[in-house]
Amino acid sequence: MLQDPLTLYKLIVLYMLNRVTFPLTTAQVSDFILGKEYTNFLTLQQVINELTDAGMIATQSIRNRTHLSITDEGKETLNFFENRIGDTIKQEIDTYFQENEFTLRNEVSVLGDYYKSTSGEYEAHLVAKDRGISLVDITLSVPVEETAAAICDNWQRKNQEIYKYLITELF
Fold first, then answer.
1. For residue 91, what are the contacts with CB-CB under 8 A and spacing of at least 6?
2. Can you say whether the dihedral through the CA atoms of 110, 15, 71, 40 is positive or negative?
């Protein structure tokens, strides 16, 4: 067992990010780690901050979610120390991804964000990706911020229906 529990938690986060081909949100990592009661919320936030500061994970904020991905430095570190993660923990992570990959991938592959443009309008930018390739990339201009926020929220809930409609109508 490791002397420092923080090191184990860091390795768990790196292992999780290395097992997927898409970024995970902080909430997705937290759901798994806190659900398994490996540690508490504050310690996990410390772990994520330290990994970010050390350049082992990259973060990207999109609207109200932070997306995490492993860097080359993080992969290298994991390669050296992966044997310090117990086989039971690795199996729990692998099983979690097998059971939840579609849901996890969909949560981070469908992005909706808005911003105020130079013209004073609000632009809702909607994207659906699969394995890093954009399937849909739409920008809608609206006069009111609340409308832009609602468009982004609806995109998160209805993206599959909208994508299907576009494909049916355009093909």
1. none
2. positive
CA distance 99 to 93: 10
Helix axes 5-18, 87-109, angle to 10 degrees: 50
Burial 127-156 (b: 16+ CB within 10 A, else e): bbbeeeeeeeeeebebeeeeebbebbeebe
Per-position b or e across 79-118, b if 16+ CB within 10 A of its CB? eebeeebeeeeeebbeebbeeeeeebbebbbbbbbbeeee
pLDDT in tens, 98-112: 998 877 877 777 888
Answer for the pair 48, 68: CB distance below 8 angstroms, yes or no: yes
- Using DSSP bridges, classify how beta strands 122-130 and 65-70 pair: parallel, antiparallel or unpaired: unpaired
Q: Say how far apart CA 54 and CA 64 lie, in whole Å.
A: 23
**Element counts in the chain: helices (H) and strands (E):** 6, 6
122 secondary structure, DSSP code: E
Measured distance CA(155)–CA(109) in Å, rounded: 12
Span 138-151, pLDDT tens digits: 999 999 999 999 99
